[in-house]
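Checklist before submission:
- one chain only
- standard amino acids only
- sequence pasted in full

Submission:
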Amino acid sequence: MHKIVNKYSRQLGKFGYSAEQLCSLPWKAKVIESHTAFTDAYINITNNKIIFKSPFNKNFLTEFRKHNPNSFVWDKENRCHTAEFGTYNLKLLTTIAFDFFDTVHCCDITQKLLTTLTDTETDIYDPTLVRVNNNFYIAALNQYLNEALPDIKLNDDLRTLAKLSTYGITISDDIIQGNIAKVIASQYETVIDMNDHINIVNIAEKIGVDVVFISGAATIGPTMYVNELKKNLEHVGIHCYTGFERQFNKDFKNYMFPISIRFRSTGSIYEPKHVKKIIRIVNSQPVNIK
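Returned file contents:
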């Protein structure tokens, strides 16, 4: 009681009350302890949003606001902080909240995620797309990468995997599961055999490729395969350049997702330096010498 009265002595003084006199009065009312809803912190994940409710804590707010990026906003009407769900946001909040509040209540979803991600991240050192309980997260995500990433909805479709790979994010094996399309989408350079009849055109279209630089086609042939590949790429709206078209280096900057398809171990001297992916096609069919 004395602590509360002394804390608000200035405000009480405006109404003519003396803190000292008030403290000397006998206290006859039954003291009712505050409910944990008003003394503890709560973290809930609902409708893809993280909701954080807590009593006022100046030190927590000072530390929380220091971190950038920080996408949490104050919901004045509901008196809570909210942010779109993301592993970085969840990690930022829990790390600071656990330091400044004696008790932090986590909903079942939050608790499961924290347990699973903690176990996962102990074995992961590089940012990696993982799947936990059919939800996708980037484990070992750092502040700078989180700031650089655009608003990408995490899933395992080819375009998403391709975008994440351009930021240096590894895709976990349990997501790829040996699927060659996902392998190409998630790697910077992939080697495939032309005799495996892989539908490169379909994969390139789903990844979001808009231009292809083809080099070294004459080294392994057959020419029919290369011509058919180029024809099919152009049929779905993907522009093609060959190793003899120097103009490509000037034009490719106008494209969003350029890749290189090589029929040799190294690229052409005309091959652009900044392609999103390299697909190297080899021919493992033995040559019969008579």
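Reviewer check: The longest strand covers residues 41-46.
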